[in-house]
Model the fold of this input.
Amino acid sequence: MPRRAFLTLFLMLPLFLAAGWVMLQGQDATIDFRNYHVYNAYALLEGREAVDIGVAQRQGFFNPALDVPFYMLSVGLSPFAASVMLGLVQALNVTLLAWLALRVLRESGEEDNKLLAAAVVTGACTPLFLGELGLTMGDSLVSLGVLGALCCLVSGRYALAGLLIGLAVGLKPTNGPYALGLFGAALFLAGRRWFPAGLAYGAAGVAGLLASGGWWAWHLWKLYGNPVFPQFNDVFLSPYAPPSPFLDARYFPKTWWEALAFPLVRNAWTMDAGGDYMHDLRFPLLILAVPCAAAFAALTWRRRVPAQGRTGIALLIFAAVSYVAWLKSFAIYRYLLPLEMLAPLLFAVLLAVAGLQGKKRRVAALAFCAAALASFTPVPFPRAPWDVSLAGAELPGDMKLDGALVVVTGRARVGYAVPSFPASTAFARIDGNLFRQWENGVLSAPAYGEAMHEKLWKRITEHEGELYALYAEDSLIGPHEALVFFQLEILENSCQPLPTRLEKGLHLCRLKRKDV
Done:
């Protein structure tokens, strides 16, 4: 096949395959979707800030800009159409990966269609990328900013690279480690012009960060006195939350040895993607390849990096810095999606660093790709059959919900169901991960910020309409503990199921005040 026709087919095919994959998989039913992806967009567009309190727990204070397009498409068209269009956008990651792979292989003199196809196909067939196609989790959307910034860097467009990664970090701060990795790669690629290149990258990065996230940080600062509320509240000390960093420390390595060999220690076969498990060998193989490549490179050391290999070396610098920063800040596998896609290409670069060229390099790289493809399984994120509505909530007909206040308790993820209620129904959450944290595997007792407690107490005591409780049957927290704290109790025999398409076990109950 002619080179141009091969590349055209190779760049377009992922779009069609992604659309087909999304159609077969079904609608998003993940915990985050049920908790905040729908609600955050709905709350922003409908001005629910003055109506509801803490419905989506601490995730309800995340920047909602990333969720708005999907929600608007779902309401204007259908969840099916919105998910397919989302999958098409996410598939552009493969196009960017193909461009990077072509650039790296061309510089090293390995313009081989088979090797190019293997690197890109293996990079696309990953547990996270396939698992998230059509889902609203956001990792495979903001990864476009990461991979796009890499493409700009290797083309010498430092300011544009900074702008793209700044936009990505503003939309989803979990991309912060990649901003550091890109900065390291930029300094290497710029050589003697490192200062103006670094300055251009940094200034544009700040501009992108302010453009996509500055408005929301200012909003949180005005309302809660913390621009990243409730994160790092041990620093900002907002009275609306406990003085806690609100970081999930369950996945951090416990020792320096575990940090050094993280994918191996955490099980080379099964990895925790943040609550969901999958199989994959690419990272264990890549980690093992690093010391081997370093040893071979030391034996055949060249005092100057060949010009044709600068893009590959820049990718290694980017990956190494990003990985270390990720390990120190999150250590949640789901946030490694860009590196997961780049793994086959990084392995090929390591082979070149070790001195392997020609047939030996192609065989070793193809063997890595074969092992990765044979071992991986997509992350089994929950999905649901397609329907015309996002939630499909069936409200009890005999409950007077107009003008009512629904008190959410337990750890029920109910944000997705809120748009199904009348617009006049208000919601206030009195329990959940904004008020409790994991401590040595056990959920702590409720801990309210003084101002948040006063706000909740005032809302509940001054409400003159009907009061209801909403909780999940399988919640890890009992539904009554926080109700007692606010002097509320469920009326006997008043609970009714609130069925939705995405989960079972939601209950809506009438409430009364104990002092009445």
In short: The longest helix spans residues 194-224. Residues 303-308 have pLDDT under 50 and may be disordered.
